[in-house]
Amino acid sequence: MNQSAIDLWSQFKNEYSITHDHYEAWAFGNSARMVDELLAHVLKREKTGTSSLHLLYKLGLEDEQIPEVGSYSVLLDGADQAQAIICTKVVDILPYSQISDVHAYLEGEGDRTLSYWRRVHQPFFEQALEEYGLTFSEDMLIVYEVFELVFQK
C-alpha cells in the first residue's frame, strides 16, 4: 500500500474517530496530467461523480471492487501521493446510453454537459477495453458513483 495513503488515512481516522481500515487508494484518469486535473476538480468540490466500466470489475480486470455506499477512497495525485479522501454516497449501475445530464454535471469536467461527457468518456472507455481485446457499445453498463470529499491534505 502507498505510504502516503496510509499516512493520510491515519490522520483522517484519528481526527474522525474511525475504527476501521477499509479503504481503497487510487487515482482518476490514465496520465499524470489527467490525474492532477481531475483531482483539482474534486478539491474545488466541482467533481462529485465518477464513472467506470462495469465489465472491467465483472471480469476481475480492475484492481478495485465495485464501490459501495459508505466506502472510502484515498485519492492519489499524478505523483502517486495521497491528497484527499472521499466517501461514496450513491452507486448507480446503468447502460452508457442512459447516463444523464445530471451524471455529466456531477463529474465536473469540461463544460459539465452530457455532450462533453460522451466526447471524453467514450474514447477513454474504448481505450480501456482495447487493452483486453474488448469493444465498446452504448449498451455497456457503467458504474456511476456519487461521492463527497470528506478530508484533504
UniProtKB/TrEMBL annotation:
Check the record and name the Pfam families matching this protein.
ASCH
User: Which branch of life, at top level?
Assistant: Bacteria
Q: Where is the signal peptide?
A: none
- Xref: InterPro entries: ASCH_domain (IPR007374), DUF984 (IPR009326), PUA-like_sf (IPR015947)
Positions of the ASCH domain? 26-151
Q: Which SUPFAM superfamilies match?
A: PUA domain-like (SSF88697)
Q: What is this protein called?
A: ASCH domain-containing protein
